[in-house]
Automatic annotation (TrEMBL), chain A:
High-level lineage: Eukaryota, Viridiplantae, Streptophyta, Embryophyta, Tracheophyta
Descriptive protein name: Histidine-containing phosphotransfer protein
InterPro entries, A to Z: AHP1-5/YPD1 (IPR045871), HPT_dom_sf (IPR036641), Sig_transdc_His_kin_Hpt_dom (IPR008207)
One MF annotation (Gene Ontology) recorded for this entry: protein histidine kinase binding
Keywords tagged on the record: Acetylation, Cytokinin signaling pathway, Cytoplasm, Nucleus, Two-component regulatory system
Subcellular location: Cytoplasm, Cytosol; Nucleus
From TrEMBL, chain B:
Highest taxon in the source lineage: Eukaryota
Pfam families: Response_reg
Residue numbers carrying 4-aspartylphosphate: D85
Keyword Cell division set for record: no
Protein name: Two-component response regulator ARR8
Species this protein is from: Theobroma cacao
Domain Response regulatory per the UniProt entry, residue ranges: 10-152
Length: 156, 188
C-alpha cells in the first residue's frame, strides 16, 4: 500500500518533469543534474537550485534597480549581470529563463531602455514560474522519499 | 608529495560562478578525482605557489621573465590538471593559461578551458597557446571523461622522470663506482 504511494508520487514527478520539458521550461541539463545526485551527494540538485534561486533574485534586484534609475546609462553593467544570469540558467537547464535573458541582452546592446524594461518584466515572470514549479517538484520528491521510507511494523 | 601511483589525480578548477564551481566539482568527484575549486585566476596561482598578483610590468610573460619571478617555487601542492572558465573578471582563463604555460615549474600541467560562448577564434587561440581541450558549457560527464588521457600522460611522464632520477641516484651512491661516476656527474 505504501509502495503504491511512493510509486504514485514518482509518477506525479515524472508527469511534472515531462510538462516542464514539453513547455521548454527545463532542458536536458536538468537531467544531468539529477544524474549527478547519488548516495554520496543526495541533495545535489536542491543545493544547486537553491544557489540558483539566491543568485537569480539578487541579479533581478540589480537589474531592476539599474533600470529604475532615471539616469541609467550603464548598459555594460547590465550586460554583465545578464551574462551571469544566462550562464547560471544554462547550467541548471532553465531554458526559458535563459532565452529571455538572450532577448534582454539584445535590447541592452541596442541601448533600448523600453525594450529592457519589457524584457525585465518577462524575465521576472518566467523566473517566478520556474521557481514555483521547481518547488513543486522538490515537494513531490520529498513526499516520495518519505513514502518510500516508511515501514509498517507488521504485515498480515 | 603524491608520488604513489595509486594516488588520486588532483584537479584544480577555476570559475567565478558558484553554480558552475559546484557543477564541475561534482562532475570531477563523480569521476574519482580529488578537486580544489577556486573562484579566480589569481587564487589559482596563489594555490599553486605562483605569486598571482605580482605584476611587475610582466604584461606578456615570456618563459624567461616568469621563471625569474618564481625561481624559488617548487610545486607546493601536486596538481595534475587545471580546468578553468574563460570569462572571469580580472584574470581571464586565457591569461591564466598563459601564466601557467610561461612558468618553468608549471608549464607541463595540462590546462583545459571552459566557456559558455562558442567563438571559434577564441577556441583556436586557446588550443594554439597550449590548452589541451576546450569545453562548451554546460560541461557534461562526457567532457570530463576526455580528461583522463591527459592525466595519464602526465603521470607516465612523471614516472619516467622519477625512474631516471632514481637511476642517477643509485649510480652516485654505489660505493664501487664512486670514482668513475663522480667524473660523469661533473660533466652533467
Amino acid at each position: 500500500m505504501l509502495g503504491l504511494g511512493a510509486d504514485r508520487l514518482r509518477a506525479d514527478m515524472n508527469r511534472l518533469l515531462a510538462f516542464l520539458f514539453h513547455q521548454g521550461i527545463l532542458d536536458e541539463q536538468y537531467l544531468q543534474l539529477q544524474q549527478l545526485q547519488d548516495e554520496s551527494s543526495p541533495n545535489f540538485v536542491s543545493e544547486v537550485v537553491n544557489i540558483y534561486f539566491h543568485e537569480s533574485e539578487k541579479l533581478l534586484r540589480n537589474l531592476r534597480s539599474l533600470l529604475m534609475d532615471r539616469e541609467f546609462s550603464d548598459y555594460k553593467k547590465m550586460g554583465i549581470h545578464l551574462n551571469q544570469f544566462m550562464g547560471s540558467s544554462s547550467s541548471i537547464g532553465a531554458k526559458r529563463v535563459r532565452n529571455v535573458c538572450v532577448a534582454f541582452r539584445a535590447a541592452s546592446e541596442q541601448n533600448n531602455r523600453a525594450g529592457c524594461l519589457r524584457a525585465l518584466e518577462l524575465l521576472e515572470h518566467e523566473y517566478c514560474f520556474l521557481k514555483n514549479k521547481l518547488h513543486e517538484l522538490f515537494q513531490i520528491e520529498q513526499q516520495r522519499v518519505l513514502a518510500a521510507g516508511v515501514r509498517y511494523p507488521m504485515q498480515n | 608529495m603524491g608520488m604513489a601511483t595509486e594516488a588520486q589525480f588532483h584537479v584544480l578548477a577555476v570559475d567565478d560562478s558558484l553554480i558552475d564551481r559546484k557543477l564541475i566539482e561534482r562532475l570531477l568527484k563523480t569521476s574519482s578525482y580529488h578537486v580544489t575549486a577556486v573562484d579566480s585566476g589569481s587564487k589559482a596561482l596563489e594555490f599553486l605557489g605562483l605569486n598571482g598578483s605580482h605584476e611587475d610590468g610582466q604584461r606578456n610573460p615570456s618563459p624567461a621573465s616568469v621563471s625569474l619571478d618564481e625561481d624559488q617555487h617548487q610545486q607546493d601542492v601536486e596538481v595534475n590538471l587545471i580546468i578553468t572558465d574563460y570569462c572571469m573578471p580580472g584574470m581571464t582563463g586565457y591569461d591564466l593559461l598563459r601564466r601557467i604555460k610561461g612558468s618553468s615549474s608549471f608549464k607541463d600541467i595540462p590546462v583545459v578551458i571552459m566557456s559558455s560562448e562558442n567563438i571559434p577564434s577564441r577556441i583556436n587561440r586557446c588550443l594554439e597557446d597550449g590548452a589541451e581541450e576546450f569545453f562548451l558549457k554546460p560541461v557534461q560527464l562526457s567532457d570530463v571523461n576526455k580528461l583522463r588521457p591527459h592525466l595519464m600522460k602526465g603521470r607516465s611522464k612523471e614516472m619516467q622522470q622519477n625512474i631516471s632520477k632514481r637511476k642517477g641516484m643509485e649510480e652516485i651512491l654505489t660505493p664501487d663506482r664512486t670514482r668513475t661516476r663522480y667524473n660523469e656527474l661533473e660533466v652533467v
